[in-house]
Specification:
The complex is a heterodimer. Chain A has a domain at about 60-365: Alpha-Beta Barrel (TIM Barrel). Chain A is about 35% helix and about 20% strand. Chain A is of the alpha/beta class. The longest helix of chain A has 18 residues, at about 210-225. In chain A, β20 (about 410-420) and β21 form a beta hairpin. Chain A has a six-stranded mixed β-sheet with strand order 3-2-7-19-20-21. By secondary structure, chain B is of the alpha/beta class. Chain B folds into two domains: about 15-135 and about 290-330, Rossmann fold; about 135-285, 3-Layer(aba) Sandwich (Rossmann fold), CATH 3.40.50. Chain B contains twelve helices and nine strands. In chain B, β1, α2 (about 60-70) and β2 (about 75-80) form a beta-alpha-beta unit. The two termini of chain B are about 30 Å apart. In chain B, about 45% of the residues are buried. Classes of the chains: A alpha/beta, B alpha/beta. Chains A and B meet through α6 of A and α4 of B.
C-alpha cells in the first residue's frame, strides 16, 4: 500500500523541514521526501494537499478513554474516532480506568481495543502505584513489557514525597517518564474552581494555584535528586511554570504540557455555574493565563495535550459542587492552538513541535513525531485558514461535556493519516480530494 | 421604574435603581403586617413553592408568611420530606415541581449556584433564599430596609461586617447592596475567614481589616455574622472560647463606633459567642426589626416576581395587584 501526499507544504521541526515537498509512504512507513516533479510510483494512492500543511502526526500525551469500566462515558473506539477527527494520530491513555491500568492484562486489553478500532494509535500509560493508591509501586517492568509508554497516577497525585521519590527512581530503571498531576490535596481539598476573586464572588470553594505549585516544585526537586524523567501534566499556574523553567536551566529532565482550555478560558467563565467550565486543574485567572502564553512563547512548555475527560450529561447536569471534573477536548484542541498562531504567540513550526515532535520525545515514541525516512506514516494535514464552527452534537466522542460548543475557529486539522492510511478527512475536504483523485487517475 | 427581572438570584447584578425600587415596594408592604387583617389579595390564585434543601426555620417561615399575606397559596417542601433524599437529582425535583405549575419557586440550597441551575431549567421565577456561600439577596434587602428605617439613608454610612466572611452569603449580598447604594463597608474577622482578595469583590467602597476594632471604628452600623460550624469541615479557628474572646462583639467595642451605632445580626444568634447578650438584647440591637422587615421584603420580592408580568411587560402596572386573573395563561413557555 502506497500513499503519495502531493503539493503540500511539509513542516517537520525534527529535521528543520519547512518547505514545499511531496511525501511518499509505503507499507505504513515514510519512504521519501520528494521534490516536486520527482518520479513517483504510479501505483500510489494520491492525497492532494494543495494549499495545506503536512505535519508529522499529532500525539496527545493525555487522554482519558474510560475503557475498561466506564464505557457509558467513552470507549477506546469512540475516543480514537474523536482523536482522528481532531487531527491526533496517537493518543496516550491515562490509567485511571476501572480497573486501573496497573496490570499487563489491562494494558494489553487497551492495546487490543485500540487496534480493533483501527483509527488512532492508542498508547497506554501505566499506573505509578498499585491501584493508583499511592502506597505500593506498580509492576512497571511488566507493564512496560506489555506496552505502556509512561507511568502516572493522574488525578490522584502521589501525596507523599517519599513515595514519589521511590517511584521516580524505579521508573528511571525502565527509562519510563513519570507523569504527575500536581496537586497538593491538603491545599485543594473540597475545591471546585480556581481560588481567587471569582471563587469568592461565586461562593465556591477554591483550589489555590499554590496547591499545584507546591507539588510542581516538589517534583522538580525530586527530579534533581533522582535524575528521573519527569513530565508535569497540564500545568496551569505561573509558579508551576517558573519551577519548570528553573528545572530546565539546571538541565534536569523535566518537561511539561498545557491543555488548550487553560489558555483559551479564564476562571471568569465559571460565572454562570456551567459545569462544563469545571475541570482540574481549574480555569485560572488572567495573570496565570498570561504566564502560560509567555511559556508557550519562550519554550518552557513542551507539549499541548488535551486532558480529554468525557463525562455523561447526567453527571455534568448535577450541581456545580457535585459534577465531576473534566471536559472533552480532542476535537477542539488544534483549533484552539491555531488561535495562538493567528495571535502571534507561536509559529506554525512551534505548533507542530508542541503537538508532534516534543510529545514523541517526551514518551520516547520511536518513529513518531517526525517525517524522517522509515518513521511511521502518521500525518496530520493542516489548513491554517479553514473557518469552522464546533458542534458538540456532532462530536465523535460519546460525551458532550465541552465549553466550546458553537465556538468558531480559524484553522483546523482537515485530514488525519495513520500508518499511511487516511483515517479521517473533513467532510468538505473529502469532496475536494475525491474530485482531484479521480482527475489524477485519468492522467 | 419597575423591576423587570424574571428571577432574583443575587444582588450583584442589580442596579441602585432596582434595589431602591425593591426597598420602596417593601416599605409599602410593611404596613400590611401592622393591620388587624394582615392580608392583601395581590397574589390571590398564585402558587409559591418554598423548596428548602437546607434546614431553615426563620427564612422559610418568613417566606411562607409573606406569601400568605399576599393571598398566595404557599407550599413548603423541605429536604427531609422530599424525594431528594431518595437520590432524585435537583433537576428532576425541579421538573416535577414545574409540572405543578407554580408561579414562583423560592429555593434554599447548601450548594452555590443551585438556584441558577433551577432558573435554567424552570419556567417559574426563582427566588434565591440562600445558596451555599454565594448570595442571600432577601437578607441583604431586609438589612438595608432596616438600616434605611433607622438612619434614613444608606449612602455615606460606615458599615462594619464582622465574622466568617469567607463562608458567608449574607456578607456577600450585603457588600454588593451597601456599596452599590454608596455606603463604606469594612469587613473583619479571623485571618482564616477573611481572604485578602475579598477586597476585589467590588470596585469601590470595601475595605478588608485585620482587626475587628479597626472595622468598627466610627461605624454607623455593625453587622455580626453567625458562626456556622456546620459549614466548616476544617478548623478555621481554634475554639469557640477563643472566638468569643477575640472576635465576639462586646460592649467595649461599641465605644469606638458612632454614638448612635446600630447592631444587626441575621440570626439565629449564638449568644456569648459572636455577640454578647448585653448587646443582642440592648437598645442598639435591631435583630427583631430585621425579622419584621424580612416579611415586608419577601412580600415585595414575591409580589414583583410571582404576579407573572415579567414576560408580558405591557401589562405591568396596568391593573391593580391581584386582578390579572390566572397569570399562567399569559406566561410564555409554561408548557414547554
Amino acid at each position: 500500500m502506497k500513499l503519495l501526499v502531493t503539493n503540500g507544504y511539509l513542516i517537520d521541526p525534527s529535521q528543520g523541514l519547512n518547505t514545499g515537498k511531496d511525501l511518499l509512504i509505503e507499507e505504513g512507513r515514510v519512504t521519501g521526501v520528494l521534490d516536486r516533479g520527482e518520479p513517483t510510483p504510479r501505483d500510489a494512492e494520491v492525497f492532494d494537499a494543495t494549499g495545506l500543511m503536512v505535519a508529522p502526526g499529532f500525539i496527545d500525551l493525555h487522554v482519558h478513554l474510560r475503557e475498561p469500566g466506564q464505557e457509558y462515558k467513552e470507549t477506546i473506539a469512540t475516543g480514537a474516532a474523536a482523536a482522528v477527527a481532531g487531527g491526533w494520530t496517537s493518543i496516550c491513555a491515562m490509567p485511571n480506568t476501572d480497573p486501573v491500568n496497573d496490570s499487563p492484562a489491562v494494558t494489553r486489553f487497551i492495546l487490543e481495543q485500540g487496534e480493533r478500532a483501527g483509527l488512532a494509535n492508542v498508547f497506554p500509560i501505566g499506573a505509578l502505584t498499585k491501584g493508583s493508591g499511592g502506597k505500593e509501586l506498580s509492576e512497571m517492568g511488566e507493564l512496560k513489557k506489555a506496552g505502556i509508554v509512561a507511568v502516572s497516577d493522574d488525578g490522584r497525585s502521589v501525596p507523599n514525597a517519599g513515595m514519589m521519590r521511590r517511584a521516580m527512581e524505579y521508573a528511571r530503571g525502565f527509562d519510563l517518564t513519570v507523569v504527575d498531576h500536581c496537586q497538593d490535596h491538603s491545599l485543594s481539598a473540597g475545591g471546585v474552581m480556581h481560588e481567587g476573586r471569582w471563587s469568592l464572588i461565586l461562593g465556591l470553594r477554591g483550589m489555590p494555584a499554590t496547591a499545584e505549585e507546591v507539588d510542581a516544585v516538589r517534583d522538580c526537586a525530586l527530579a534533581r535528586l533522582t535524575s528521573a524523567r519527569v513530565h508535569l501534566a497540564h500545568v496551569s499556574t505561573r509558579g508551576s511554570l517558573e519551577a519548570v523553567r528553573r528545572a530546565k536551566e539546571l538541565g534536569l529532565r523535566v518537561t511539561c504540557e498545557v491543555a488548550p482550555h487553560h489558555w483559551a478560558l479564564t476562571d471568569e467563565a465559571v460565572a454562570d455555574y456551567d459545569t462544563n467550565m469545571k475541570m482540574s486543574p481549574p480555569l485560572r485567572s488572567k495573570d496565570h493565563v498570561g504566564a502560560l502564553l509567555d511559556a508557550l512563547r519562550d519554550g518552557t512548555i513542551d507539549a499541548i495535550a488535551t486532558d480529554h475527560a468525557p463525562h455523561h450529561a447526567d453527571e455534568k447536569g448535577l450541581e456545580f459542587d457535585q459534577a465531576p471534573f473534566g471536559i472533552i477536548g480532542l476535537e477542539t484542541a488544534v483549533g484552539l492552538a491555531f488561535d495562538l498562531v493567528h495571535q502571534g504567540v507561536i509559529s506554525l513550526e512551534r505548533l507542530v513541535a508542541l503537538c508532534a515532535t516534543n510529545p514523541a520525545r517526551i514518551f520516547s515514541l520511536e518513529g513518531r513525531g517526525t517525517l524522517r525516512p522509515n518513521s511511521w506514516g502518521d500525518i496530520t494535514i493542516l489548513d491554517p485558514e479553514y473557518q469552522w464552527t464546533f458542534d458538540a452534537a456532532k462530536s465523535k466522542s460519546k460525551s458532550r461535556n465541552t465549553p466550546f460548543d458553537g465556538r468558531s475557529f480559524r484553522g483546523a486539522a482537515v485530514a488525519t493519516i495513520v500508518a499511511g492510511r487516511v483515517v479521517y478527512i473533513h467532510p468538505e475536504y473529502q469532496r475536494i480530494t475525491e474530485s482531484k483523485r479521480s482527475a489524477a487517475s485519468t492522467k | 421604574m419597575t423591576f423587570n427581572r424574571k428571577h432574583l438570584l443575587g444582588i450583584r447584578d442589580l442596579s441602585a435603581e432596582e434595589i431602591t425600587h425593591l426597598l420602596d415596594t417593601a416599605e409599602t408592604f410593611r404596613d400590611v403586617s401592622r393591620r388587624e387583617i394582615k392580608k392583601v389579595p395581590a397574589l390571590r390564585g398564585r402558587t409559591v413553592i418554598n423548596l428548602f434543601f437546607e434546614a431553615s426555620t426563620r427564612t422559610r417561615t418568613s417566606f411562607e408568611i409573606a406569601a400568605k399575606r399576599l393571598s398566595a397559596d404557599a407550599v413548603n417542601i423541605s429536604v427531609s420530606t422530599s424525594s431528594v433524599s431518595k437520590g432524585e437529582t435537583l433537576l428532576d425535583t425541579a421538573r416535577n415541581l414545574e409540572a405543578m405549575a407554580p408561579d414562583c419557586i423560592v429555593v434554599r440550597h447548601s450548594m452555590a449556584g443551585a438556584p441558577h441551575h433551577l432558573a435554567r431549567m424552570c419556567n417559574a421565577p426563582i427566588v434565591n433564599a440562600g445558596d451555599g456561600s454565594h448570595e442571600h439577596p432577601t437578607q441583604a434587602l431586609l438589612d438595608a430596609l432596616t438600616i434605611r428605617e433607622h438612619k434614613g439613608r444608606i449612602e455615606g454610612l460606615n458599615i462594619a461586617i464582622i465574622g466568617d466572611i469567607l463562608h458567608s452569603r449574607v456578607a456577600r449580598s450585603n457588600v454588593y447592596l451597601l456599596t452599590t447604594l454608596g455606603a463604606n463597608v469594612r469587613v473583619a474577622g479571623p485571618g482564616t475567614m477573611v481572604p485578602a482578595e475579598f477586597a476585589e469583590l467590588v470596585d469601590q467602597g470595601l475595605r478588608v481589616e485585620q482587626r475587628i476594632e479597626d472595622a468598627i471604628e466610627g461605624a454607623d452600623v455593625v453587622m455580626i455574622l453567625r458562626i456556622q460550624r456546620e459549614r466548616q469541615d476544617a478548623a478555621f479557628f481554634p475554639s469557640m472560647r477563643e472566638y468569643a474572646v477575640h472576635y465576639g462583639l462586646h460592649p467595649s467595642h461599641l465605644e469606638r463606633a458612632s454614638p448612635d451605632v446600630i447592631v444587626m445580626h441575621p440570626g439565629p444568634i449564638n449568644r456569648g459567642i459572636e455577640i454578647s447578650s448585653e448587646i443582642a438584647d440592648g437598645s442598639r440591637s435591631l435583630i427583631l426589626d430585621q425579622v419584621t422587615n424580612g416579611i415586608a421584603v419577601r412580600m415585595a420580592v414575591l409580589y414583583l416576581l410571582a404576579r407573572g408580568n415579567h414576560s408580558v411587560p405591557a401589562e405591568a402596572g396596568a391593573k391593580p395587584p391581584g386582578s390579572t386573573g390566572n397569570g399562567k395563561k399569559v406566561r410564555k413557555g409554561t408548557k414547554a
